[in-house]
Amino acid sequence: MPKILIVEDEESIRSFIKVNLIRHNYTVLEAASGEEAIELANKQPDIKIALLDVMLPGIDGFAVCQQLRETYPQLGIIMLTAKGQEADKIEGLALGADDYIVKPFSPQELMARIAALLRRINLPILNDPIKLLTTGSFSLNLLEKKLYKNDTEINLTPTELAIFNLFMHNENIALSRDNILNEVWGTDYFGDIKVVDVNIRRIRKKIADNEHTYIESVWGYGYRFQGDVTDE
Ligand code: CA
Q: What is the pTM for the complete model shown?
């Protein structure tokens, strides 16, 4: 079963999460500090998802997120943020988190977020006969879950990969924010639509060059991807 790391200094919250994860047959690892979390992740690189509390003693959840993201681009990261800390959510996402959940949360909500993120990590490739998508200088290898631009690998998070996969299947078509949210996060997602914008900003930064951003904003609507720019 997928291995999930809980990083939370409050023992009561940690055990509440743990009990619920075990009930859903996940394998659980626990850390009470960021330092401990990084050590654990280095020992057990097969962790699928890290649940990261923001307020931790020592290095905080943002720093842990950043470090884990650099070392493990394919790791799923969900931030556990305090109520009303809107800036925290956006900062976490900007640093590479895939999602956030606001405390206090119900076990159902947490499980839904985890299940949705696992779907993204696994990408719906099994029923897709096409394993390699190419356009312009981009090629997306769905088996390796890797994106290449001019044969150089571009490290994308699981969520960014899922979005890019969607773009590749809908090149030159304007996709609405809602559409992207439903396709990537799932229709049962009850978070903020800003997650779409933050993730797209991150992808753009990674794929843009001096001539092109490749992802165009469609004002008041969403985004359009154009990978093949040769005829411009
Ligand atoms: Ca805490």
A: 0.82
